[in-house]
Design brief:
By secondary structure, this protein is of the alpha/beta class. It has 16 helices and 24 strands.
Length: 484
């Protein structure tokens, strides 16, 4: 008899408006803020039915408590449908609603048992602290199993289903004029962005890329658009740190890896330092998210570290090289200029500063240098040559020697024609369209190309004949003299 009392004295509520609030992605304070805004705007005198469509991929436990507080402010009937994906939900969320709908495949978790859902384990698969909804679609004592939000709402209005929290039932027909409006409510654009970056992988990726962009600007170009974008990424990603209990020690380790990456960029090659920077970078992520409120996908976290490493080792150096490499067309005007030595990049190159600009220049390997001291730029003899052999005297070209591995033909290779004569060791290449000589593989050193300096578009024609050139006696070739 006691079980019948709630039914006998239940109130039938005629619904005029159906409001569906969507919770997707990471259930966080972004959803709670949107829900609070809805509660302030809603007309409490209207006959509203409030429904949450719950499809969260993860949840912050603090948001569960905040949801209960927000829902307690609402006097209207409240329902929740979990779906359409196979979603996991804690039973403490379900306890706040008059009506519960579950899609097949839903997983319910609880540390307090499942008595609030009656004999749910008789028709579904229960294991320890989890319930997997395996029952057929239909209406059960404490819940409904339906595959869509539309079927859930229709059943609430057409079937005599009692509230779990109070003595009331609903009455409405979606296909009639009884319903004034069905409104879907979503968080604002900014709140949805916050929800998206709450994912720890995105938080880590945005934060690290923000520093990478700032490093790019400060190291190679100077503060600009990329630095501004980097600062925005850092600001947005750091908004989630406090809510999800990020470990701040990881940030200090991250800064160490960032400084190491900058050092790698200044050196110009990967090496053991780059590998160490990558290891410390990923270690910082593990420490940062060691106490995180959300689940961590370590496979995706490794992928994010790889993306950041690619950015440091491939993308940024490409931009830096385009900024730091000296312009050969203006090199003659830099001769005798005073520069400050910033760093020895390798055995052959150094990074110097001239009038606030950073330049990469060649250096003498056998000479010792001191960082931050001033040096004078000179033009080294022997870098450029003319030759008086039977073919070169007719071409009249100024040539620069380059290692075979350091010359790459990017396009137009099909338009090159090769000519050989005499010993047929040297390979002379010409454009078969215009006839201009471009380069040749040298007889004296087959491991080198000699490149026609006149084919370099950036060289000023007026400066061309001012270049310091060494004369090579090809008419009396050294290999011919050795044979004799």
């Amino acid at each position: 008899m006691l079980k019948l009392l709630p039914i006998l004295f239940s109130v039938v509520v005629n619904i005029a408006n159906v409001n569906i609030f969507e919770i997707e992605g990471i259930f966080s304070s972004g959803h709670i803020n949107a829900l609070e805004r809805y509660i302030e705007e809603i007309d409490k005198e209207e006959n509203n039915l409030f429904i949450i469509q719950y499809n969260a991929s993860d949840v912050n436990k603090n948001s569960i408590n905040d949801l209960g507080i927000s829902l307690a402010k609402m006097d209207v009937p409240k329902a929740i449908w979990v779906g359409p994906n196979k979603t996991q939900i804690d039973i403490s969320i379900l306890k706040n609603f008059d009506f519960i709908g579950l899609s097949p495949g839903t997983t319910i978790t609880s540390e307090e048992g499942f008595s609030a859902l009656g004999d749910i384990c008789k028709t579904n698969s229960c294991e320890n602290s989890k319930i997997n909804i395996t029952a057929e679609e239909g209406i059960y004592e404490e819940y409904l199993v339906v595959g869509s939000i539309g079927a859930f709402v229709e059943n609430l209005g057409s079937q005599d289903i009692s509230s779990k929290l109070r003595p009331l039932t609903l009455s409405f027909n979606l296909s009639s004029n009884e319903i004034d409006q069905i409104r879907f409510i979503k968080p604002s654009l900014f709140e949805r962005f916050y929800i998206a970056i709450s994912n720890p992988v995105f938080t880590y990726l945005f934060f690290a890329l923000g520093f990478a962009l700032i490093g790019l600007e400060l190291f190679a170009i100077g503060p600009g658009l990329m630095a501004f974008i980097g600062a925005l990424l850092i600001s947005f990603s750091s908004m989630t740190f406090n809510e999800y209990n990020l470990t701040y020690l990881g940030l200090l380790i991250f800064l160490v890896s960032f400084l190491m990456f900058i050092k790698v960029l200044s050196r110009g090659y990967f090496g053991l330092l780059g590998l160490g920077a990558l290891i410390i970078l990923h270690s910082s992520a593990l420490v940062m998210f060691s106490s995180y409120e959300l689940r961590i996908n370590h496979f995706l976290l490794v992928g994010a570290s790889s993306v950041i490493a690619f950015f440091y080792f491939i993308a940024i150096p490409t931009v830096i090289r385009s900024r730091l490499t000296t312009d050969t067309s203006a090199m003659s005007s830099l001769v005798n200029s005073e520069v400050v030595l910033l760093e020895l990049i390798n055995n052959n190159q150094a990074l110097v500063r001239l009038d606030g600009k950073k330049l990469v220049v060649d250096r003498l390997e056998e000479k010792s240098y001191n960082i931050k001291e001033e040096y004078k730029l000179i033009e080294e003899d022997g870098k450029l040559q003319r030759c008086n052999c039977s073919i070169c005297r007719k071409k009249g070209s100024i040539m620069a020697a380059v290692d075979l591995n350091n010359l790459e033909i990017l396009e137009g290779k099909e338009n090159l024609s090769m000519y050989q004569f005499n010993t047929k060791v040297a390979k002379h290449y010409f454009c078969k369209i215009c006839g201009i000589y471009t380069h040749h593989q040298r007889r004296s050193n087959p491991n080198e190309f000699a490149v026609n300096v006149g084919c370099i578009d950036e060289i000023d024609p007026y400066e061309y004949f001012k270049l310091k050139v060494e004369n090579n006696d090809g008419n009396n070739h050294i290999l011919d003299r050795v044979k004799k």
